[in-house]
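Write out C-alpha coordinates for Helix-turn-helix domain-containing protein.
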Amino acid sequence: MDDGKLLVAVGAAIRRHREGRGISQEGFADSIGMHRAYYGSVERGRRNLTLMTLVRLCEGLDVRPSSLLSEAEAAARTSRRR
Protein backbone atom coordinates (compact mmCIF):
# COMPACT_ATOMS: atom_id res chain seq x y z
CA MET A 1 0.00 0.00 0.00
CA ASP A 2 1.23 3.46 -0.90
CA ASP A 3 2.29 5.26 2.31
CA GLY A 4 1.20 8.66 1.04
CA LYS A 5 -2.29 7.46 0.16
CA LEU A 6 -2.67 5.85 3.56
CA LEU A 7 -1.62 9.05 5.37
CA VAL A 8 -4.13 11.05 3.31
CA ALA A 9 -6.84 8.45 4.00
CA VAL A 10 -6.15 8.52 7.76
CA GLY A 11 -6.33 12.32 7.73
CA ALA A 12 -9.57 12.23 5.77
CA ALA A 13 -11.09 9.71 8.19
CA ILE A 14 -10.12 11.90 11.13
CA ARG A 15 -11.64 14.92 9.38
CA ARG A 16 -14.92 13.06 8.69
CA HIS A 17 -15.24 12.08 12.35
CA ARG A 18 -14.43 15.60 13.54
CA GLU A 19 -16.87 17.22 11.12
CA GLY A 20 -19.48 14.62 12.09
CA ARG A 21 -19.23 15.93 15.63
CA GLY A 22 -19.63 19.50 14.40
CA ILE A 23 -16.29 20.69 15.76
CA SER A 24 -13.92 23.11 14.02
CA GLN A 25 -10.29 22.16 13.42
CA GLU A 26 -9.13 24.79 15.85
CA GLY A 27 -11.69 23.82 18.49
CA PHE A 28 -10.80 20.16 18.25
CA ALA A 29 -7.06 20.78 18.34
CA ASP A 30 -7.52 22.94 21.44
CA SER A 31 -9.70 20.29 23.11
CA ILE A 32 -6.97 17.65 22.81
CA GLY A 33 -4.08 19.99 23.56
CA MET A 34 -2.58 19.96 20.08
CA HIS A 35 -1.33 22.93 18.07
CA ARG A 36 -3.85 23.73 15.35
CA ALA A 37 -1.22 23.93 12.59
CA TYR A 38 0.07 20.46 13.47
CA TYR A 39 -3.47 19.11 13.61
CA GLY A 40 -4.28 20.66 10.22
CA SER A 41 -1.27 18.90 8.71
CA VAL A 42 -2.55 15.61 10.15
CA GLU A 43 -5.89 16.06 8.38
CA ARG A 44 -4.09 16.87 5.13
CA GLY A 45 -2.07 13.65 5.38
CA ARG A 46 1.26 15.39 5.79
CA ARG A 47 2.16 13.80 9.14
CA ASN A 48 3.20 10.26 9.86
CA LEU A 49 1.47 9.87 13.20
CA THR A 50 2.91 8.03 16.16
CA LEU A 51 0.69 5.45 17.77
CA MET A 52 0.21 7.63 20.84
CA THR A 53 -0.81 10.64 18.73
CA LEU A 54 -3.33 8.48 16.88
CA VAL A 55 -4.74 7.25 20.19
CA ARG A 56 -4.98 10.83 21.46
CA LEU A 57 -6.90 11.89 18.35
CA CYS A 58 -9.21 8.89 18.54
CA GLU A 59 -9.95 9.48 22.21
CA GLY A 60 -10.92 13.05 21.38
CA LEU A 61 -13.21 11.80 18.61
CA ASP A 62 -14.58 8.91 20.68
CA VAL A 63 -13.66 6.38 18.01
CA ARG A 64 -11.55 3.24 18.33
CA PRO A 65 -8.16 3.46 16.61
CA SER A 66 -8.76 0.09 14.97
CA SER A 67 -12.04 1.34 13.46
CA LEU A 68 -10.46 4.52 12.17
CA LEU A 69 -7.53 2.63 10.64
CA SER A 70 -9.84 0.09 9.00
CA GLU A 71 -11.87 2.91 7.51
CA ALA A 72 -8.73 4.62 6.24
CA GLU A 73 -7.25 1.41 4.85
CA ALA A 74 -10.43 0.66 2.90
CA ALA A 75 -10.45 4.20 1.48
CA ALA A 76 -6.77 4.00 0.51
CA ARG A 77 -7.33 0.69 -1.27
CA THR A 78 -10.34 2.08 -3.12
CA SER A 79 -8.43 5.18 -4.24
CA ARG A 80 -5.61 2.98 -5.52
CA ARG A 81 -7.99 1.21 -7.90
CA ARG A 82 -9.22 4.44 -9.50
